[in-house]
UniProtKB/TrEMBL annotation:
<feature type="transmembrane region" description="Helical">
    <location>
        <begin position="57"/>
        <end position="75"/>
    </location>
</feature>
<keyword id="KW-0472">Membrane</keyword>
<feature type="domain" description="TLC">
    <location>
        <begin position="102"/>
        <end position="316"/>
    </location>
</feature>
<dbReference type="InterPro" id="IPR016439">
    <property type="entry name" value="Lag1/Lac1-like"/>
</dbReference>
<feature type="transmembrane region" description="Helical">
    <location>
        <begin position="153"/>
        <end position="174"/>
    </location>
</feature>
<feature type="transmembrane region" description="Helical">
    <location>
        <begin position="243"/>
        <end position="261"/>
    </location>
</feature>
<feature type="transmembrane region" description="Helical">
    <location>
        <begin position="293"/>
        <end position="312"/>
    </location>
</feature>
<keyword id="KW-0812">Transmembrane</keyword>
<feature type="transmembrane region" description="Helical">
    <location>
        <begin position="181"/>
        <end position="201"/>
    </location>
</feature>
<dbReference type="Pfam" id="PF03798">
    <property type="entry name" value="TRAM_LAG1_CLN8"/>
</dbReference>
<comment type="pathway">
    <text>Sphingolipid metabolism.</text>
</comment>
<dbReference type="GO" id="GO:0016020">
    <property type="term" value="C:membrane"/>
</dbReference>
<dbReference type="GO" id="GO:0046513">
    <property type="term" value="P:ceramide biosynthetic process"/>
</dbReference>
<dbReference type="InterPro" id="IPR006634">
    <property type="entry name" value="TLC-dom"/>
</dbReference>
<protein>
    <submittedName>
        <fullName>Ceramide synthase 1</fullName>
    </submittedName>
</protein>
<comment type="pathway">
    <text>Lipid metabolism; sphingolipid metabolism.</text>
</comment>
<feature type="transmembrane region" description="Helical">
    <location>
        <begin position="268"/>
        <end position="287"/>
    </location>
</feature>
């Protein structure tokens, strides 16, 4: 069910939009606005109207779809090339532990990409005329169906959309399998849906804000993991990598909460749930987009539990060094392999 909610009376009576609320105000206001929109939408929403809304307001060309597919394939080829000719030879030259040689290229590739993508998002939000971070409600100011997308934002969308298309394939066939890999695949599908539909419906302004708030943690995560891999080289322990991995883990834990669990709901969800319907009464696919954004928030909370688990293990002495608690231990991997081999033999 979707999608042309009408604004409740309290949000269209000239009330000034608040830039960023507190948690309680966000929860109560979002509930009030979304419930009112849902109630008013009862007689106006449904599959037929959703189909009509999609046809009337979604704008994406076949050339853009072709460019997306070509870039997704390009990312896969570039990653394979860098892994084969740069990352793996470098890992072997540095004599890191054999168990980390296969995992190091994945982190190196992701660090390179996310550093590039987050730097570009930072440039758009803080070094251009866009004020979406400082004033989140402005992402929907002057919104019009089919409005043109600025070239600099189009480039960001092409880079990010094609990368997440590549990442769905990479998580299944190229990355090390982890305890949260299935959740990661779901995350990539949701992110790709958000990128695709937000571009088609011209919600690109809020999309840039979402990407900025999420990519920073991936930079810190892969930086930390690389220092863990390089901490032991040639049978020797290197203090500098140990210190950098500990600093990275602390920074990662803090910024995960600050960017994804504080700024994300109070900037992005506040704008998408509350102020969007004030700026654009009857905004298309209101419930669809907010459902995806809330699903993203739930996954952020899920992964934050891994971070809490990591902190608890460190504080209680169960873990003496930085490790990715999502990864299977060697004995777990052996047990899974033995189980799979036994099932194959019985088959």
């Amino acid at each position: 069910m979707d999608t042309n909610p009408v604004d409740d009376g309290s949000s269209s009576d000239g009330m000034e939009m608040e830039i960023m609320p507190g948690y309680m105000e966000f929860i109560t206001r979002a509930y009030s606005v979304m419930f009112s929109a849902f109630r008013d939408c009862t007689d106006r929403c449904g599959l037929e109207l959703s189909r009509k809304t999609l046809l009337d307001h979604a704008y994406i060309s076949w050339m853009e779809i072709f460019m997306f597919l070509m870039c997704a394939v390009m990312w896969t080829k570039v990653r394979r090339g860098l892994t084969m000719y740069v990352f793996e030879p470098f890992a072997q030259w540095c004599c890191i532990q054999p168990k980390d040689v296969s995992k190091m290229p994945e982190s190196a590739w992701k660090l390179v990409f996310y550093t590039m993508s987050w730097s570009y998002s930072t440039y758009l939000l803080f070094f251009t005329s866009y004020s979406f971070f400082q004033n989140p409600p402005s992402v929907f100011y002057d919104w019009k169906s089919g409005m043109s997308v600025p070239t600099d934002i189009t480039i960001a969308y092409l880079i990010q959309g094609s990368f997440y298309g590549h990442s769905i394939y990479a998580t299944i066939y190229m990355d090390a399998w982890r305890k949260d890999s299935l959740v990661m695949v779901v995350h990539h599908f949701i992110t790709l849906a958000l990128i695709t539909f937000s571009y088609a419906f011209r919600y690109h302004n809020i999309g840039i804000l979402v990407l900025f708030l999420h990519d920073i943690n991936d930079v810190q995560l892969e930086f930390t993991k690389l220092n863990v891999y390089f901490k032991t080289r040639g049978g020797k322990e290197y203090l500098i990598n140990d210190v950098l991995s500990n600093m990275g883990a602390i920074s990662f834990s803090i910024t995960w909460f600050w960017f994804r669990l504080y700024w994300f709901p109070l900037k992005v969800l506040w704008a998408s749930c509350v102020t969007s319907i004030q700026s654009v009464p009857g905004i298309p696919f209101y419930f669809f987009f907010n459902t995806l954004l809330f699903a993203l928030l739930l996954m952020n909370i899920y992964w934050f539990l891994f971070i809490v688990l990591f902190v608890v293990k460190v504080l209680t002495g169960q873990m003496t060094e930085v490790n990715d608690v999502r990864e299977y231990e060697d004995d777990e991997l052996k047990e899974k392999k033995d189980t799979n081999d036994q099932m194959s033999t019985e088959g």
